[in-house]
Amino acid sequence: MSEYSIAGISFAFTVTSVGKVELVPERQNIVNRFDEHGDLLTLDRLPEEGNASFRQRMLDVTVNRGSPTYEGFINNLARELGLSKFKAITIDLVLGSDGEPLATNPRVDILASEVILYKEWNSSEDYEIDKTINIYDLGTDCYYLSDLINEINTSEYFTASLVSGVRPNLLSTCLVRGNTHRREDQEVAWADQQTRLKDTEWGTRPRTHEGSFWFSEKNVFVTEVAGEPENPGEYSIDYYNGYLVSYDIPSGTGRFGYTYGEFPYTAYASLVQLYSLQDENFTKKLFAQEVLESGEEVNALPNAEGSEIIHQLYKDTKVFWGA
Length: 323
Fold this sequence. Notes:
Elements (H helix, E strand, L loop, with lengths): L7 E10 L2 E9 L4 H8 L10 H13 L6 H11 L5 E8 L13 E4 L3 E7 L7 E7 L10 H8 L5 E5 L15 E2 L1 E8 L5 E3 L10 E2 L5 E2 L7 E2 L9 E5 L4 E4 L8 E7 L3 E5 L10 H4 L3 E5 L5 E6 L1 H13 L7
Parallel strand pairs: 13-14
Antiparallel strand pairs: 1-2, 3-7, 3-17, 4-5, 4-8, 5-6, 9-16, 10-15, 11-16, 12-16, 14-15, 18-19
């Protein structure tokens, strides 16, 4: 089996003048077993791509799955172009002298134009932001990954580092959008009074969020206490090390769930990015912002970059104005 599937040669005839004919060799793919496997995955070989590279992209299908979601589109487009996403930076928590994180409910959001560090996150509006870091505009402190890491490391609650082999002058806007927020709904309360939360898919203990637990056996888990449970209905949670302790013995079939933060969190980067004109974090960078009398901030006229994008959309899209 040939390592490269481009061994065939044919000839094309080009008439450049009367009475003169040139023969131009063309390379053609020779189909082999790799192409058959690629067909099963609806993945085509790139022009002049060898079997080794094609095999890696086929394996990537099962690792970075495609889907209609933002991340799924990134995975599909990057793979089709031979530009798979890669690990870029790692974000972790700063620990206190007791070995536990300084932030109780930490969360990190990577958005289209900024990174938000929450020191106390919850699902309501009552959260505390440690830092909002702009990663979009040229000339700001965080235009490159090295700048972004330096800014994160000024935080009291978070620390960041560059993944080995990644260029520090890579644009921060190459980061794939995502967050550290995860949800678990299928934990089982075993009948031994102490339940160790299962490891996350990254092999780490879940750093659970306070106030996020729910229980199916509400007669067993009634009142949360800080120390050891001493009365019926009491329970305690070690949010950092991932333990649930109850006074009563559960039936063994009770279920509970919670939200947790994935730390250390590895943010991926991709040379292929998607931006939506409906994304508030993106449109704020395309339009001048005007504050109404009510205090509401709205989009005004497009700025230079916004005008260029809109012009390009009109140029490449059939848009007609009129009644």
